[in-house]
Amino acid sequence: MTAKIVFDRVGKDFPIRDSVESFTAIEEFSLAVKAGEFVVIVGPSGCGKSTLLDLLAGLTTASSGRVLVAGEPVSGPGLDRGIVFQQYALLPWRTAQSNVEFGLEAIGVARRARANRAREFLDLVGLSGFEKRYPHELSGGMRQRVAIARSLAYDPDILLMDEPFAALDAQTRESLQDELLRIWQRTGKTIVFVTHGIEEAVYLGNRVAVMTSRPGRLKEVLSIDLGPRSVDADLRSSPIFGRYRHEVWSLLHEKETV
Ligand SMILES: Nc1ncnc2c1ncn2[C@@H]1O[C@H](COP(=O)(O)OP(=O)(O)OP(=O)(O)O)[C@@H](O)[C@H]1O
C-alpha cells in the first residue's frame, strides 16, 4: 500500500534576520505514514515538530526534500487535512455549534445539513447539550473538544494535531486522550500528533517518531503495542507501558551525551 504521508529527506532552513546565513531547523527528515495510522512525533522543545506539521499543513514549504500527501506534493492548505493546535482558536462570538459549522460554511454545506453535521460531531466529542454555549462558557477541555469537532466535521482524511492537550490539566488531558483514541478507532483517520510528552506519545501512538534537536532530525521510530485497552485498566502503570516510556526517554536522553 502506498503511504498516505511521506516526508522524503526533508530539510527546512529559516533565514536569520540581518544575516546572510540561515538556521537549519530540520535536516534530512524521512518518515512514511500509512492511511489510518496514528503516528506521534515526540522531541524536545525547538526540534522542529511544529515545523513538520506546518509543512504537512501546507503553511510553509520545505527547503529541501519532498512532502507528499496521497502521493502528491503539498502545495498549500487543503480540506483533506484538519488541524488542531494547542490554542483553542475558536471564534469567541460564535457558539460551540456555530464554531463547528464555521468550516462547513466555507465549503458551502447547506444550512440544515450543516447544523446536523455540527450536532453529530459535538456529540462524538461528548458535548451534546453544550451546543449553544459560547467559548468563554466552556472549560479548556470542552473548548478543545469543540476544536476537534470542528476539524472532524468537514471529514478530512488526515488530522494534524500540535500539542492539542498541552494546556489542559492532567485529568482532562487523560480523558481527552481516551476520547481521541475512540474517535480515531471510529473514524479511521490518519493522525499525526506532535508532543513533547513521552507518556502522551506512548499512550496514543501506533508508532512514535523520536526526534533530536539542533538541527531537528529523526532519531528512531518505535512501534508501540500496548495490547487490548480497557477503560478501567490503569494502562499507564503497566510494566509494558513503563518499558516503552523508558525506551523513548532513553532515546531522547542519548542525544545529550553524544
Ligand atoms: N518562522 C521562523 N523563523 C525562524 N525560525 C523559526 C521559525 N519557525 C520556527 N523556527 C525555529 O525552528 C526551530 C523549530 O521550531 P518548531 O516550532 O518547529 O519546534 P518545536 O519542536 O515545535 O518546539 P516546541 O515544542 O517548543 O513547540 C526552532 O529553533 C525555532 O526557533
UniProtKB/TrEMBL annotation:
InterPro entries: AAA+_ATPase, ABC_transporter-like_ATP-bd, ABC_transporter-like_CS, ABC_transporter_ATP-bind, P-loop_NTPase. Transmembrane segments: none annotated. The keyword Mitochondrion does not apply. GO terms for molecular function: ATP binding. Residues 5-238 form the ABC transporter domain. SMART domains: AAA. Pfam families: ABC_tran (PF00005). The keyword Transport applies. Keywords: ATP-binding, Nucleotide-binding, Transport. CDD domains: ABC_NrtD_SsuB_transporters. This is ABC transporter ATP-binding protein. It comes from Kibdelosporangium philippinense.
